[in-house]
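User: What would this chain look like folded?
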Amino acid sequence: MKTLRVGRITSSDRASAGVYEDLSGPEIEHHVAALFPDCALDWQRVLLPDEIGLLSGALVELVDDRRCALIVTTGGTGPAPRDVMPEATRAVLERELPGFGEIMRVRTYDVAPTSILSRATAGVRRGCLIVNLPGRPAAVGECLAVVGEAMKKALTILETEYLS
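Assistant: Here's the prediction, encoded as structure tokens.
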């Protein structure tokens, strides 16, 4: 059985301060596990406040040091001033894949018209696919249902050295 090292980052001031429990991170694990039933998943978990430098640093660490093949983030994608995950992600990408965010917004609009407020994006750093998701737990599943097959195909195309 192949092992897939997956990073998940939750960007939330309140969850990182212990004001409430991170529910979106575990949702990522549930839905990603369903996408890769033939892989053993090695989870690398990060919970941080909405700080661009901390988030960019965590992305770099997960790719460059912890050797993740896939990173899925949740939170920080909206229009509020502290929503900085897309900026943190773009700061470390080698190639942006804006179609991920575009299709998530379009395909989830009928369920949640506020999805058009999301600025989520995706891209590649050193063979690792990084995908931003909204912070609402239900939106994690809705969006992964939309982009899951593309995520799997991207990992095949990237032929990442981090998938063993």
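Helices lie at 13-16, 24-35, 52-65, 85-90, 99-108, 137-158. If you want, I can go into more detail on any region.
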